[in-house]
Amino acid sequence: MDIYLDHNATTPVLPQVAAAMADALARTANPSSVHRFGRLVRRSVDEAREAVAALAGVSAANVVFTSGGSEANNLAIRGFAERAFVSAVEHASVLDAVPDVYIIPVDGNGVVYLPAVREILAGLDGTVVVSVMLANNETGVIQPVAQIAEIAHAAGALFHCDAIQAVGKRPLNLCELGADLMSVSAHKLGGPQGIGALVVRDGLDPEPLIRGGGQERRRRAGTENVPGIVGFGVAAQHAQRAVIDYSVMLAGLRDDMERRLLAAAPDATIHGAGVERLANTSCIGLPGVSGEIQVMTLDLAGVAVSAGSACSSGKVTPSHVLSAMGLDDDAARSAVRVSLGAETKAEHIDRFVEVWSDMAQRRDTGADIRRSVA
Amino acid sequence: MTGAPTAIYLDHQATTPVDPRVLDAMLPWFSETFGNAHSEQHVWGRQAADAVDMAREHVARLIGAEAREIVFTSGATESNNLAIKGATRFALRHGRGRHIVTLASEHKCVLEACSAMEDEGAEVTVLSVDVDGLADVQAISEAIRDDTVLVTVMAVNNEIGVVQPLTEVGALCWERGVLFHTDAAQATGKIALDVDAMKIDLLSISGHKVYAPKGIGALYVRRRPRARLLAEISGGGQERGMRSGTLPVPLVVALGEAADVAAEGLALEGEKLAALRARMLTRLQDSLDGVFVNGSMEHRVPGNLNVGFNGVNAETLMADLPELAISTGSACTSASVEPSYVLKALGISDADAGASVRIGFGRFTTENEVDVAAEMIVRAVQEQRAGGSARAAE
């Protein structure tokens, strides 16, 4: 049995999304073409835009489709300012969006320290973007986004929220978050890879990164990824209906899993456990065993988890998220991320707990950790 | 295409249908084997990464490149932006020049990327093309200066299908030590391209013009000598730092398969399309007076016909033919009522440009469709000329 517990990296496409995309892939036309063929395709793009807008609590005109979350994050920051203030636990696409970036520290749970935000933003001049994610991709920790937005606005800054890991996992609303800009991505919520969106509040227009045709109201050029957009729309509709049930179900599975892991290895740590987290994410530290060895051992036993985020998982540096939370290099290197999804079942968790517990036991007895569990 | 059996799609320069072989190759990657190609620590990720590697090989092979010279993007517009802005910004930052040479008939996104660079301190020379739509290599040579970074000349024009003298432009750029970028969105898989023989440093590819889906493209970036770029989308460092973001595995697989299919049938398909085009033109010319072709017929991609009818309003013609997908100008600018800037660049009058349509033939176009479409166009032109168009009076 192959068990996939890496949903924060990417999720399988939902069956209804795949069906809608297959339909869209069978229709040939460029949505910018004025002939009837083009207009039909245009309509399917408009419908999907409505659905994504509804999920974010905005109107269709506020949605700018992009090639994914990384592009949306780059556009949110570089499209408005040359200087950004971002939290230390942001995704690389936020940290690297502009060279002129100031880092806002976080506490031991990975939560942005509000007095630090006030201090850092005091006496700002010129246009800047403050960017803090809603939920962290490695730990699932939720940030006090509305409060940060208020401080940012008082300082005259724009506020961007990377909601890529949160969308579909908890209810979302641009206004309630107090954000001017918000990034979302389809493939984290059962939609396809290669499509995302930047949500912009009324009256804000980014300087485009990609220029050319007049698509996306001149905010992002290029022929629209029609099947991707259609798939995103269907995934968004589903997420809006399922989001509450999903988080209740997964929180139950996840909490039970964590209790069993801590029982098996009392010195293990659940990073960020002291604060509000996404219901599906668990970042588990096992002292003395590197995250890479853990992931490899679990992989041999047919369980897919990750050490850190997927885009940096080829690197051997310790997680910047855990380092920012004050962990030393050894501790930051010895964690794995387990992220559950809609199709995760109790028996999947049982198997993971079994393999992981065996690994912890081998550590204690000095046996070869990588020997796979039968 | 929903409904009406008479609907005929002859707008293959705007977008192409997804080839069934491409569709079959990509579909399993949505839900069966759906990993993140960057999660190489587990089997789901490794399978996805292997599929991406194979696709990269296929795309590279189509243009005579190495796999590691291919950067996947969201499409040709992004590729063109990355090539032009990325190379110019690198040069500006390192004091290695500030001048770009391009053509008046380039795609809108090339021209806009160039003008965006003017705002950042670059200078742009926009050269005119001749009455056939062809670039003057001598004029390019004269335009190149000591501080020229890049010459960007498209391989095949999107409106008139004219093929530019890539080998000559490439040799010139090589000799003068400037980068040569070509927007090959309309050329890849349609004509033979070889980045070494043509001395191309940067080449933009589009998926949906070559029977793969929308939302995927690629940029070829030469390694020896290395063409240096500043990234447009930064973050996770994917695509060797030139383009961050999770790779869309199904779309990448689709582009790889499309490249493979195109490479296999390149010569045969060209002959077939040329025959279809000749058939259309003959039927139009046999039945109508005042038919003229825009752009060179000799140096032209076989699937394109850009044809005008004296005294006819092309917009009205299209409106009179709702079951036929043809176009006036490129899709990106087709909502605009201005006459095509490409046709104007050839020196064609506003009246003639306004009387012209683009007819694009594709892999699955049949002789019967060409015959029916020709008949529809002939009748609509005749009716409009006789003042009988339902819409002509409006």
Shape of chain A: globular
Largest sheet of chain B: 7 strands, mixed
Strand content of chain B: 5-15%
Instruction: Kindly give the count of domains of chain A.
Output: 2
**CATH architecture annotation of the largest domain in chain A:** 3-Layer(aba) Sandwich
Anisotropy-based shape of chain B: globular
Q: CATH homologous superfamily of the largest domain in chain A - what is it?
A: Type I PLP-dependent aspartate aminotransferase-like (Major domain)
Structural class of chain A: alpha/beta
- What's the CATH superfamily of the largest domain in chain B, by name? Type I PLP-dependent aspartate aminotransferase-like (Major domain)
Number of strands of chain B: 12
How confident overall, as mean pLDDT of chain B? 94
Q: Could you name the CATH topology of the largest domain in chain B? A: Aspartate Aminotransferase, domain 2
Report the β-strand fraction of chain A as a percent range.
Answer: 5-15%
Please state the CA-atom Rg of chain A, rounded to the nearest Å: 21 Å
Low-pLDDT runs of chain A:
none
Q: Bin the helical content of chain A.
A: 25-40%
Give an account of the 3D structure.
The complex is a heterodimer of chains A (374) and B (394). Chain A is built from 12 helices and 12 strands. Chain A is α/β, with parallel strands linked by helices. The longest helix of chain A has 39 residues, at 226-264. The mean pLDDT of chain A is 94. Chain B has 394 residues and is an alpha/beta fold. Helices cover 39% and strands 13% of the residues of chain B. In chain B, helix 7 links the parallel strand 5 (148-152) and strand 6. The radius of gyration of chain B is 22 Å and the shape is globular. Chains A and B meet through helix 1, helix 2, helix 3, helix 4 and helix 8 of A and helix 3, helix 4, helix 5, helix 8 and strand 11 of B.
